[in-house]
Design goal:
alpha+beta, single chain, 180 residues, Heat Shock Protein 90, 21% helix, 6-stranded antiparallel β-sheet
């Protein structure tokens, strides 16, 4: 994505708790790096084929990076799975040969997951709850569980992302982890 600028279209959906974003208890998040140092962000990405069977691999990547003791790990894995599934089902990533990239950014106060794939004609739509529907719950979960989420489109790519924060502490490094 070198040289690409994601300014064509974007949307942010904040759901900030009273007191703002926060730190994990003790500032400890066990994962690939074990204990995160205060103020240091770890950013890793992996690219998969845009196939439904690769959603499991995306979940495993997020789980390995965050580790079993991460306080928001289960939620991050669930929401990442939903976004990868949406990219494959509703985006252009299911076209043979099209990749999906999952990027995880972890800092002492939270985690951000970005899912990038081929841009579809539409944008992510938060649908009203419908107990009878077989699908359409993925973005509702993201809306309900993430501190904020959004999407960016440009250069033939679409990125949908979410952030999870702790309960009391600083915001992401630099104030926002969105690309500049």
């Amino acid at each position: 994505m070198l040289g690409s600028t994601f300014v064509a279209e974007s949307s942010v959906h904040p759901r900030v708790p009273v007191g703002g974003p926060g730190a994990f208890p003790g500032g400890v998040a066990g994962g690939k790096g074990g204990v995160l140092m205060a103020g240091v962000a770890v950013r890793e990405s992996v690219t998969f084929a845009g196939r439904p069977d690769q959603v499991r691999e995306a979940r495993a990547f997020v789980a390995r990076l965050l580790g079993p003791s991460h306080p928001r790990g289960d939620v991050a894995i669930l929401l990442a799975s939903e976004l990868v599934t949406n990219s494959v089902r509703h985006g252009g990533s299911a076209v043979p040969g099209e990749p999906v990239t999952v990027t995880v950014v972890v800092w002492d106060a939270g985690v951000r997951v970005e899912v990038t794939g081929r841009k579809a004609d539409g944008v992510p739509v938060l649908r009203p709850p419908d107990d009878e529907a077989e699908g359409s719950r993925g973005l509702r979960l993201v809306e309900d569980l993430a501190a904020r989420w959004g999407y960016e489109r440009g250069g033939g790519q679409a990125t949908t992302w979410f952030e999870l924060w702790g309960t009391a502490g600083p915001s992401p490094p630099g104030g926002d982890l969105a690309r500049g």
